[in-house]
Write a structure and sequence with these properties.
3-stranded mixed sheet; 3-stranded antiparallel sheet; binds zinc ion
C-alpha cells in the first residue's frame, strides 16, 4: 500500500528529528498534503496509527493541512489553480498544464511534549 510506505517515511523523519533535537515524545504530527499528491488522507491516518505504535510518536495525533494544487498553463502563460492531476486549465481548457504546486506531502511541524 502506497500510504503504508509514506507512513513509514514519516516515522523515519520523526525519529530522526527526535534524535537530533533530543525529544522523546511527539504529541502531534502536522502534515501538509498537496491536492495533487495522490495521497489518500483517510488511509494515511489509518497507516499512521499502525506504523507509529512503537515509535516516539505512538498515540500522536495526526493533523493534515491540505495544500491546493496549482499549475503552469503554457497557453495562458500563467499559474492557474488545479483541482486534480491532468485536469485542463480552468481558464482556457488547454491540457498543457504543468503541475507546480500541491504535488508533495511533507512533515510541516512536530508538536512535542
Ligand atoms: Zn490556460
Amino acid at each position: 500500500m502506497h500510504e503504508m510506505s509514506l507512513a513509514e517515511g514519516i516515522r523515519q523523519i520523526v525519529e530522526d528529528a527526535g534524535c537530533s533535537q533530543g525529544f522523546h515524545k511527539v504529541k502531534t504530527v502536522v502534515l501538509e498534503i498537496g491536492q495533487l499528491s495522490s495521497v489518500e488522507p483517510d488511509s494515511l491516518r489509518f497507516c499512521f496509527d499502525v506504523v507509529m505504535q512503537d515509535s516516539i510518536a505512538a498515540g500522536a495525533a495526526l493533523q493534515i493541512d491540505s495544500v491546493p494544487g496549482s499549475g503552469w498553463c503554457m497557453q495562458c502563460a500563467e499559474t492557474v489553480p488545479v483541482a486534480a492531476l491532468y485536469d485542463p486549465c480552468p481558464k482556457c481548457g488547454s491540457y498543457q498544464v504543468q503541475a507546480t504546486g500541491g504535488t508533495e506531502m511533507r512533515v510541516k511541524e512536530l508538536e512535542i511534549e
